[in-house]
Amino acid sequence: MTTNLQAQPEARVPAPVHALEVRGLVKSYPGVKALDGVDLVVRQHEVLGLAGENGAGKSTLLKALVGLVRPDGGEIWVRGEKVRLRSIVDAADHGIGMVFQEQSLVPNLTAAENIVLGSEGPGVRRGVYRWNTMRRLAQEQLDKIGSHIDPLARTDTLSFADRQMVEIAKVLRIEERTSHPPVIILDEPTSVLESKEIETLFTQVRRLREFASVVFVSHRLDEVLDVCDRVAVLRGGRSVGEVPAADAAPAELHRMMIGSTGGDDHYHGASAAVRSDERSDEPRTPRLVVRGLSGKTFRDVDLDVHAGEIVGIVGVHGSGREDVCRALFGAEPTTAGEVVLDGERLDLSGTRAACAAGVGYVPAERKTEGMVGPMSVADNMTLTKQHSRCTGPLVRPRKQATLVDRWIERLSIRTPHRGTAIQRLSGGNQQKVVLARWLVAGDVRLLLLDHPTRGLDVGARSEVYRLMRELAGSGVATVLLADSLEEAIGMSDRIIVMSDGRATTEVAAPAGGKPTPLDLVKEMV
Amino acid sequence: MSTPVITKPAADAVVPVRPTLGQRLTSFMPVIALVVLLAALTIADPGFLTLNSLTAAVRTSAPLVVLAAGATLVVLCGGIDLSIAALCSLATVFFALWLPDLGGLTTVAVIAATAAIGALQGLAHVLLRIPSFIVTLGGMSIFSAIALVISDAGPIRVVDRDVTNWLTLYVGGVVPMSFVVALVVVAVISLVLRLTPLESWIRATGYSESAARLAGTPVDVVKVAAFTVSGACAGLAALMLVSRNFSGSPSMADNLLLPAVAAIVVGGTAITGGHGSLWRSLAGALVVTLLRVGLPIVGVPSAYEQILYGAIIVAAVALTLDRSKVLIIK
Fold first, then answer.
1. pLDDT score for A463
2. At B200, which CATH number?
3. Phi-psi sector, A53: left (phi>0), alpha (psi -120 to 50), beta
4. What is the residue range of B287's domain?
5. Where in this chain does the record put each ABC transporter domain (chain A) (predicted)?
6. pLDDT at site B229
7. Which residues of chain B carry a pLDDT beneath 50?
């Protein structure tokens, strides 16, 4: 906090000097407090796990540690010295480096070039690459982690696991900048790896501990407990505690991560339509029937969704579930398969046809794909269903105003005015406007929700959940790509597991008979 | 299907956010810039502000206003049309060549032809997925060359002046007809945009094409339409030039491309798309014309004229562009 800025620095540097210490870090974005006073200690030569749900503030914290985000308040101390990190180079000078979740290597360069990129040092003389020196520099880095990758191999010919090794080797270059053991941050390093590769990575991480401190972030709790010495848990932008990894169970961590938040009340329900239908045993024709849908990243996907049903699709990164969603909306080309909506063949050639057929899509990237930031709430809401604000070809401003105001009230969208630019709203209210876009004409039959609660705080999330339930209750068929397994389990009536572009398993998730996250994880890998 | 109703009302009141004075001012900036420029020119030479020189200025500006108005649509969609001047030159040649055969229908024929050529460029941009910059850069070169070939590389005199004579009249004896036509073009296009969904489609396309596409906006149709109107405007501007010069020439409008682009940006339309309007381009075109016409009149030496022109354009954009409405400054 800003008030603590002057709290006697000398007195706060006691005996064991930590590799990295964070005190009361605060960072707010419009509508969301991403970090709300986070405290964190990374000791010398330890592997610290960082756990937390989506939106707990992990990414913001990591970005603050490498100078990509300027905190609003709080302090960062490196080896007993208070620092202000202004850029990633600044962080590197203090010995902090990060392996990014989205791989940050340039694919058409060699491993060696990538490793020295940005810190070429003697690898460049008079503006010209000295290939031998560069290869030697790169080889030194690769030797540090005992990797046998050819430094002159083009990066895009390497496997994901090898690229990760290159990234780690690259990050270790920061050792040249400080005389101290560096702090290496690994952000979700396992999300794109296979289990055998994960084992190799873990060996590396344990080896890193010899000469560095490591911060390890992963969604998979068993991994975190496996490789870390200690695990710190974040929730809602705060540190909620830490446990030694040796005697903690995933369940315990999980409880700390989730806590007891209001959002969970909406889990574990079933859609009204499904409940009432359970009484009648007649077989129903599904509203959406997908058969053998294939595209670039998915093959032979079959999927049925009934009216009033929420079907979750889960899968790891690269399972192809996002592309299936986009394909159903006509935004991703398909090579084969048939999609039938309410008995009629759905035209997948473009988004306009899908919209006209009553399909709605809420993209994961709200800011760039979901909404048109500088346009008003009203214009965003009526962007798709133009006829809802028109008489014939003419726009009727009064008709639009009445309609939009009604939806602002129904969804309790907090906006100064319908004419306010949507980018000035908080994330949750933006998302409600994006959702309302599909509802204003009252003709939506199928909703495809790609991470509809991404980046929303707990309160906004539960409002989106409630809206989803109400929509299902009115007969809308919903396909949900949830932000977390817990969300998928809580919100879905049925869950499809996708792996390598195929729908592999179907798991029923009725109220009272929900599967556990572990049941699903087994099927996902 | 019944519409769902969320029962919980909004708990907290929201403080209304009013636009700041600065934000309000930026929307009037193009007009303010115009008035300031006029005042500055008058102060520099008190003899400048006469009915005659104003009439001359707006008459000169008419083709530029029409060209800029059409190209503004393309810019609003997030593209750029570099071919307008070359297409306009080509259209003057068309006009001179076709007039003896088509007579009174030439006007319609020329505008239809340039509209079709504009549509063709739009289709190339949309269907072949080539950036509009490249498509229209190629178009510019091709149209210039065609104009040279079919005109035998020289001006073609227009003998029958009856067809274009109406553009040289004065409304009420004061306002040049060509300027009135330019105003009507700006007004009609603006009205059509305002009264139909086209405006939100164009803005959504310009601000964020992917978001527009995922909202089911007919992005491709909108873009082709913008290029078509831009082409038609080039044809109309050609008529105005022919009515003034009594000839068609393969390079007649070539010096209008950069002033047209300048007019658009000086008006405060974002070159990145989405934000802006045709009215702004009208004001921008008047500013650009006043600079061109006014600087020599008030006695700025021609060597300094270019420097001043460039500096004022950059300064005007700095004033008129509302940065809160623009996502990226490229």
1. 87
2. 1.10.3470
3. beta
4. 47-320
5. 20-261, 283-525
6. 98
7. 1-17
* A253 and A300 fall within a common domain: no
* Cβ of residue B19 closer than 8 Å to a chain A Cβ: no
Q: Is residue B18 part of a domain?
A: no
A351's enclosing H/E stretch is helix A351-356
- CATH, residue A74: 3.40.50.300
Q: What is the pLDDT of residue A10?
A: 47
| pTM of the model as a whole | 0.75
Q: Are residues A187 and A325 in the same domain?
A: no
Chain B residues in contact with A417 (beta carbon < 8 A): 16-17
Residues 309-328 of A with CB under 8 A from B: none
State how far the Cα of B212 lies from the Cα of B205, in Å rounded to an integer.
5
Report the pLDDT value the prediction gives residue B223, as an integer from 0 to 100: 97
Structural domains counted in chain A: 2
pLDDT at B328: 58
DSSP string spanning B143-159?
A: HHHHHHHHTTTS-EE--
Q: How high is the pLDDT of residue A295?
A: 92
Structure-token pair, residue A410:
């129904």
The residues of chain A scoring below 50 in pLDDT are 1-14, 261-265, 268, 270-282
Closest CA to A71 of A117, A4, A167: A4
Q: What is the CA radius of gyration of chain B?
A: 21
Q: What is the pLDDT of residue B330?
A: 53
Domain limits at A411? 263-524
If contacts are CB pairs under 8 Å, which of residues 330-369 in chain A contact chain B? 331, 351-352, 354-356, 361, 363, 368-369
ipTM of the complex: 0.85
Q: Is the dihedral of CA B291, B296, B297, B299 positive or negative?
A: positive
User: Which of the 8 DSSP states describes residue B284?
Assistant: H
Give the residue on A whose Cα is nearest the Cα of B215.
A384
